[in-house]
Amino acid sequence: MKATLFDYQRFCTEFIKSVPRCGLFLDVGLGKTLITLTAFVELAQENKLHGHILVIAPIRIAINTWPDEITKWDHTKHGTFVQLAGLPKKKRDKILDDVKEAPPTIYIINRELIPKLVERFPGKKWPFLNVVIDEAQSFKGYGTKGFKALKSIAPYTHRWIELTGTPSPNGLMDIWSLIYLIDGGQRLGRNITEYRNRHFVPGRRTPEGYPYEWLLIKGHDHYIHHAIKDVAISMMKKDYLDLPPLTHNVIELEMTKLDRRVYNQLKKDRVLPLLNGGAIEASNAAVLSGALLQLSNGAIYADESRKEIIELHDHKIKALEEIVEGSNGQPILCFYWFNHDKIRLDRYFPGAEVFNGDPEQLKRWNNKEIPLLFAHPASAGHGLNFQYGGHILVFFVVPHSLELYEQSIGRLYRNGQTEPVIVHYLKMRGTVEDRVISTLLEKQSVQQALIDAVKAEIGDLEPVN
User: Fold this and answer.
1) Which helix (H) or strand (E) element contains residue 22?
2) Each residue of 167-214: pLDDT tens digit?
3) Residue 386 and residue 383: Cα distance in Å, rounded?
4) Which of 54, 103, 152, 403 is the most exposed place for a label (fewest CB within 10 A)?
5) Is the dihedral of CA 422, 426, 431, 433 positive or negative?
């Protein structure tokens, strides 16, 4: 298939070619994969690309999206690529044994394997001169094995491309890791302590006096935005794609007096006695928040083994049933969070399916053969195209993660969607869900400010039709 790049895609392609180490903070559905592949093809044609390319991505994107995109387009399909993700260890090791003698190749690997790959090729032995990190925000944790592994080999690469639509899902503290991998600390500091001390002050502290919250110093967001503007660009799909309307519909649900009494008892005492003589205990604030969220959904695990489920109410299930009945046969994509949500939903809606990552199942969804599909945001939230199968999305519960929240909506609301998209939120009034949503909006505001600050300035473009 012949690929025709739109103006914004051409701009991004040229940015990659002219800035060897950079970040593309592009909204879901803007074609990050096509843009990156096109840049590498043109660099190779201009004799400016040398050595292997390593693409690091979430496993489903590594197995499905990148191979599909390479073979889809006329100008990329002749490139040599090897899919390491999903291979048995023996087969993967055999391929890596020959990597140094192989001609320039695109190697595609899932992010979980990076520490082992770096262990195999440490320092100067690193054979991949060009690295692409898809969904780069997954390496924001500066203390993780993945980040430390990438940090150790970054100096031995020529080109380094980071792709993400959510560069700072939890605030500007997240951006340091991504920029450090690009520039080695030139712009935001050589380590997280230097960055933190320069731009943040301690907030809440533990009883021992150690801060566990850091607050951005007023005005320092502008400094951070300015510091990274030459190596990062951002774009939002609303600015460049002619998409149908997106509607958000919050469905407020009420607990019965008995449900509320149970909920309030756990909230106040952090203990919920059971009829069998046992009890559900919330040992700290995080555990309590999770337990209250479960009760808001209508069920809770009886103990840490999570083998027994106690059901409290079915208000959200009934609300989903009403949405299904009112959809007039239109397919619905519903995101759940807890495993007991999936169990109860699967039992209550026998004609529905649970997304398992199978490409054939995704194909049936996009052919409108599945009336109701349940999915977890972490398993279906990145790089998968659901937009051809439906335009109705339901959050059985809103995820805490801004990244997963935005990615989930982006499964339906992306290029190729032809119907107005409606997002339903099943929210229990007066519960911890109020705080989850308000926190999510705060995170969204901080990230939007960052994205706006590094927004590409490419003139007035025609929208994509």
Assistant:
1) strand 21-26
2) 887 889 999 999 999 999 999 999 999 999 999 999 988 888 888 889
3) 10
4) 103
5) negative
